[in-house]
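Narrative progress, year one. The postdoctoral researcher (J.K.) led the effort to move from monomer predictions toward full complexes, under supervision of the PI. The following entry was the first complex the group processed end to end, covering 225 residues in total.
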Amino acid sequence: KAGVTQTPRYLIKTRGQQVTLSCSPISGHRSVSWYQQTPGQGLQFLFEYFSETQRNKGNFPGRFSGRQFSNSRSEMNVSTLELGDSALYLCASSTQGGALETQYFGPGTRLLVL
Amino acid sequence: QKEVEQDPGPLSVPEGAIVSLNCTYSNSAFQYFMWYRQYSRKGPELLMYTYSSGNKEDGRFTAQVDKSSKYISLFIRDSQPSDSATYLCAMSRPGTYKYIFGTGTRLKVLA
């Protein structure tokens, strides 16, 4: 089985711009979660989608949004970028998204905001 | 105060040493505990998970959970240079669809 794929792998943007990141889960997985990883804060949960519905959301401002398509692929959008949004954005997929399920992570998209 | 606390390290040990990695947590509702390993420029990969107090062993790795102290540990026996990575603890509680991660401990095993 192919693993979780994320595109693009690297991005450079300037403050005020917006960005869209894409995640393709493992075939058959319907749950996709997004995380932001920074050296100081570690991995922080952004949101989780299952069957095109957002089931849980972390403590991030409304500039961070996401969606999931009928084929389970997911996108994450950040509008009005700030310097502090520079981070590694990881997505993870699992079958149903339950608390005991194994989450499989993609390699991440490294975003640099100048 | 963060829900999950983890010493960021770095932790340097000689090859063959026993490594102890730890996390503490404040939310007694956490029932599921996981350890992930993350190599540089890669996404985290699951090493072990457990949902009860006590020890769980898998090869050179042992996960330990003490719910009364809200403390979890990962032990690595006979550590190898290939174990050099960042180790992240993660926790979740029933009925939620999100994991809370520690900040990760960077481990370096010296040959």
